[in-house]
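hi! just following up on the protien thing from before. the input was this:
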Amino acid sequence: MITGILRASAFFVFIGRAWQHLFQDGPYRTLFWNESLFGPLVNAITPWSWSQYVTHPMTDTVIQMGTRIIGIGFLFCAIFALTASAGNRRDRRMKVLISGAAGLMFLAFLEFMGRGFQVGQFFEYSAQFMSPVLLVMALRGMGGNFSFRFLLLSAVALTFSCHGLYAFGYYAVPGNFIDMVIRYTGMNEDHSVLFLRLAGFLDFAVVVSLLVPAFRPIGLGWAVLWGLATSLARVLYQIDSGEVLASLLVWAPHAIYRFPHALLPLAALFVAGGASRSSKVFNWKSGKTVGLAS
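and the predicted 3d structure came back as:
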């Protein structure tokens, strides 16, 4: 069961990112149009000035081609997340999944750059880039290890705490957060900000609950529901009633690659034994795992 959840989590993040890269765009201009980083290199290896480099059609063409190639790589990772063999440490598909995780971490770094180097922006994506890593660990029979449990809970804690930093107002509250609350609750802007502060507080409460075994199932249960709600809100908020299909094609991947925000807490809930009495889960007290690679 746990491995199945992790397969789904890795699949959704990879297929969502593949969709984004193949049919939309990626954040790579944040890096390649950064004059302080690439200006000296452009001057050294091309006859162009920085302005010529940025505006030249070839530059954008190369970035788009690279984006599509990365999208194909993510597509293969999505397939391998569903097909990699449990218990076969020599399965090369696992190495591809780890490479895909590195690609997801690089995307998180680019988002971090694009948001003015806000650390919370990077770690908010922890559930996404850790999903393939945790899947590979489970497939290799490491699902009962302390390192697996620690990384799983850490990914959940980092995702929700950093999401809470934006909702609570430590960082500037994103305008689309406020707009979504106004649209779905009918609240005015001031009340929407208060609602988001409460949501941020609950994000922090999830993290605290992970430290207290008695409250862990409650915190993780809320994390599953809130993670799913915030993921689906990305697409529901953007749907145009007059062009539903077109809206879905554009915004669905932004919801899909966030599904790990709900699926990793669900996996942790099964690991903690809070979602099932089945013997085929990890028991925190006994330290034994049965059927994790099923």
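Confidence is low (pLDDT under 50) at residues 274-294.
The chain has one domain: 2-271.
cheers
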